Structures are given as C-alpha cells and as structure tokens.
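ARCHIVE CARD
CATEGORY: sequence design from structure
SOURCE FIELD: tokenized fold
FIELD CONTENT:
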C-alpha cells in the first residue's frame, strides 16, 4: 500500500465534518469555490490539493499548516512521522521479522516509558509520542516502539527488546516475545 495514500486515509478518518469545513475555508486561495463546495471529506480535499500540486509526498508543508490551524496536533504528528520515515532509506529499516510489537503493546501498559528509557530512547521522543497519543495507551506503546525502531535503524534487534523487558522486570512479556 502506498504510504502517502495511507497517511491521507488516516488523517481523513480522524477529521470531523466541521474540521473539513474549516480546512476548506483555509484553501480558498488554492481551490475554486465550485470544487471546494463539492468536498465532503478530507480525502476529497487532499485529492484536489494533490492534483494542483499543493501537496505531495515530498511537500507536506501546506497540509501541516492546515492541521496546525484546526489544532489537530495528533494528526500533525502522523504527518511528521511520515516525513521522518520518508527520509530513511529502505535499507535503514529493521528486518520485518523483528516486530514483536503486538505482544509488547498488549502487555507493557504503564511501564512503557521505563521500557523505552531502558532501550535508550531520548526523552524528547518519548514526550512527542506521549503528546500525540495521550488518550490511547496501547497506541503510545506501539508508536514509541516505532520511534525506537526508526532511531536504531538496522541495530533495532529483538534481543535488545528482550534484554530491556527483563531489565524492567517484565520477564513474562520478555518470554512471550522470545517465543
């Protein structure tokens, strides 16, 4: 699946009708009135902005500005994560088989920060994830693990996760990950 289209879908599904209306208002100088009036959901708006080359996978400033103006820092964080992922070369990505995230996400809970500190993830990254997903603990854990994985690149190993889990006295979770 195209990551940019997936990003647009994620943002669109998180927008209320009122937020789409506010974004349309902010696009008055970019989209003619007739086209603007037909837009009902975020995906339609993004499609027009792409056609007019206002946004693109490598040009997301206008989209970020729209999200800032409607005060959706959670969706803005998705765009920023997308940008960071785009900047990494595919060979810098960890092995796809080294993603025991579901086990960790479902079982770490409130100890997530302790685990991330044990893995050496910088505080600024922890704060960013916590702000973006403050109402969804499992998503915080998942996104923090993704941040760690991006930060470490090819050096993000399951063995490190297991050691960190053991270091946080989460031995049962470590055993499940090992399995």
């Amino acid at each position: 699946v195209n990551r940019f289209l997936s990003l647009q879908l994620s943002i669109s599904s998180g927008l209320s009708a009122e937020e789409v209306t506010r974004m349309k208002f902010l696009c008055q100088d970019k989209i003619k009135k007739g086209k603007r009036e037909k837009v009902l959901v975020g995906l339609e708006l993004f499609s027009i902005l792409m056609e007019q080359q206002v946004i693109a996978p490598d040009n997301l400033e206008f989209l970020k500005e729209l999200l800032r103006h409607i005060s959706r820092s959670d969706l803005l964080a998705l765009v920023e994560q997308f940008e960071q992922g785009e900047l990494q070369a595919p060979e810098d990505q960890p092995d796809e088989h080294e993603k025991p995230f579901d086990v960790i996400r479902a079982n770490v809970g409130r100890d997530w920060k302790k685990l991330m500190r044990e893995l050496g993830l910088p505080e600024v990254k922890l704060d960013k994830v916590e702000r973006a997903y403050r109402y969804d603990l499992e998503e915080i854990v998942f996104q923090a693990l993704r941040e760690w994985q991006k930060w470490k690149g090819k050096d993000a190993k399951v063995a490190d996760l297991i050691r960190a889990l053991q270091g946080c006295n989460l031995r049962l979770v470590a055993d499940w990950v090992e399995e």
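CARD ANNOTATION: The chain has a mean pLDDT of 84. Residues 12 and 43 are 6 Å apart (CA to CA).
SHELF: design records, drawer C
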